[in-house]
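Example for tutorial group B:
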């Protein structure tokens, strides 16, 4: 690999690394290089469901909810600008999300969500069983009640990755695939170079966006936060017509109807190390929960099976920020179940740090020095 100086090196070309590269380029930064040990955009970013599930995924008002909401609010503009920049429609679907109860416990969960979200002034409505089935006739007759979150949307995450990659290609950002970053050489409080499988790479600023593999990158004496892989298995059904118009959640699973007739059903949440594969038990678990929501899809053939590794920090929250004693190193990882949702705000936050803008206290609360990360 050529040993030329770069302004920015980004390690990892998933949705997080690619979104950061785009935002830095839009802010006028030149000589950006992204390296990925595999093909770009093919790990968690490819496997994801693409739900922008702020109200379905959060349990209380607080910083994480604020972060998710702020990122979701950026999506209409993010999608429109990416469309203008690349000609790729990333399939932002704003029909909303239904959250269903099938058991007494599920109804208690619905009570809890409805109460905290109403108190927080959020857009949420309660539906009876018959109202739920009127809205989505293929939902099981066993449904007890539902909530509708009009502001929880979805996006076609693979098209999002394709659009970001096209942006990279059109804007002179260097993308090097098949190259692994093994170690960052840190001296006197600065990253001097990245040692990669293709030689050393020099850059003024390094950004680690390596998803579930983040803490495998050595950066002695810097302690890169521990990020664990959490496997998720998803199955996809192909239908000729669209069965559902909303994303549909239960406390055990979800169905994501795509514009092209696919229905994605997910997902397992498994702490099994780096074993990124489908298992018969995982497929069975996902199918069972999908058919609980909509027994009428049980006759459909599985058209796709895919697994991915979600990056999870010790406190299950994203890790975004610089390091106290290293001036030119930033990490953006740990996005766990919500990396597609959180890509726009993460990109903005990292770009603000790089260009020296003031970073909000909200973003600072997801920094590397928080105590909950060491647990
Ligand atoms: C089944 C499933 C469903 C999901 N559903 C949703 C959803 O509906 N909504 C949502 O918002 N999120 C969802 N997620 C979570 C989301 O996919 C992740 O949070 C997000 O993709 C993380 O993006 P990333 O760029 O950090 O990681 P990744 O997409 O995994 O990318 C990391 C990249 O870094 C590269 N890399 C790693 N180590 C190195 C190295 N040493 N050198 C060079 N390159 C390296 C990898 O090859 C990879 O390409 C889901 C995840 C799964 C698995």
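The residue assignment follows.
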């Amino acid at each position: 690999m050529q040993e030329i100086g770069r302004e920015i090196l980004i390690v990892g070309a998933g949705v997080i690394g690619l979104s950061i590269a785009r935002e830095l380029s839009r802010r006028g930064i030149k000589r950006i290089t992204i390296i990925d040990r595999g093909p770009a955009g093919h790990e968690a970013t490819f496997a994801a469901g693409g739900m922008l599930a702020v109200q379905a995924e959060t349990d209380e008002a607080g910083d994480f909810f604020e972060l998710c909401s702020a990122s979701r609010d950026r999506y209409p503009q993010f999608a429109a600008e990416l469309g203008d920049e690349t000609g790729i429609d990333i399939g932002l679907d704003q029909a909303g999300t239904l959250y269903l109860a099938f058991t007494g416990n599920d109804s208690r969960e619905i009570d809890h969500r409805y109460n905290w979200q109403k108190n927080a002034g959020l857009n949420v409505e309660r539906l009876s069983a018959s109202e739920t089935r009127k809205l989505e006739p293929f939902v099981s007759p066993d449904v007890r009640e539902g909530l509708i979150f009009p502001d929880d949307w979805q996006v076609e995450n693979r098209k999002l990755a394709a659009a970001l990659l096209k942006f990279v290609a059109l804007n002179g950002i260097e993308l090097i695939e098949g190259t692994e970053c093994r170690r960052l050489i840190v001296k006197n409080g600065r990253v001097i170079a990245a040692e990669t499988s293709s030689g050393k790479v020099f850059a003024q600023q390094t950004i680690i966006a390596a998803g579930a593999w983040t803490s495998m990158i050595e950066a002695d004496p810097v302690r890169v936060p521990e990020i664990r892989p959490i496997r998720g298995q998803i199955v996809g059904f192909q239908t000729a017509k669209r069965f559902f118009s909303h994303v549909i959640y239960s406390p055990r699973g979800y169905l994501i109807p795509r514009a092209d007739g696919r229905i994605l059903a997910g997902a397992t949440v498994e702490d099994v190390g780096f074993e990124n594969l489908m298992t018969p038990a995982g497929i069975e678990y996902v199918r069972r929960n999908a058919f609980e929501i909509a027994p009428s899809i049980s006759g459909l053939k599985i058209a796709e099976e895919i697994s991915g590794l979600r990056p999870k920090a010790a406190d299950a929250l994203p890790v975004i920020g610089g390091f106290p004693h290293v001036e030119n190193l930033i990490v953006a990882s740990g996005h766990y179940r919500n990396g597609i949702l959180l890509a726009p705000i993460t990109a903005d936050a990292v770009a603000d740090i790089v260009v020296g803008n003031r970073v909000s206290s909200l973003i600072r609360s997801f920094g590397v020095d928080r105590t909950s990360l060491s647990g």
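The two ends are 38 Å apart (CA to CA). Compare this with the pattern of hydrophobic and polar residues in the output above.
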